[in-house]
Design a protein that fits this description.
The protein is mainly α. 39% of the residues lie in helices and 5% in strands. Strands 1-2 form a two-stranded antiparallel sheet. A hairpin with a 7-residue loop joins β1 (17-18) and β2. The longest helix is centred in the middle third of the chain and has 19 residues, at 34-52.
């Protein structure tokens, strides 16, 4: 997640909401922020691009395939 956060130029609290009192910190399980819902869709899109498109490109030198990541489009 830190790579995603860096690529987007955000912090954890952009997608994750605060826990209710008396606990402190972020509620990573909560899905109440729109940014987190959007991030889930974007992560599914990245996975599909890598699997269905970029992953099918054969490289002649047999090195690691090129992969799309958040930073491919979002550059912090």
């Amino acid at each position: 997640m830190s790579r995603n956060s860096f690529a987007l130029g955000t912090r954890c609290d952009h997608c994750h909401s605060e826990k209710n009192a008396p606990e402190k910190g972020l509620d990573f399980a909560a899905d109440d922020k729109e940014a987190k819902k959007t991030a889930r869709v974007m992560l599914e899109m990245v996975e599909a691009i890598n699997k269905d498109y970029v992953g099918k490109i054969e490289k002649a030198d047999h090195t690691q395939p090129i992969r799309v990541e958040c930073v491919t489009c979002h550059r912090g």
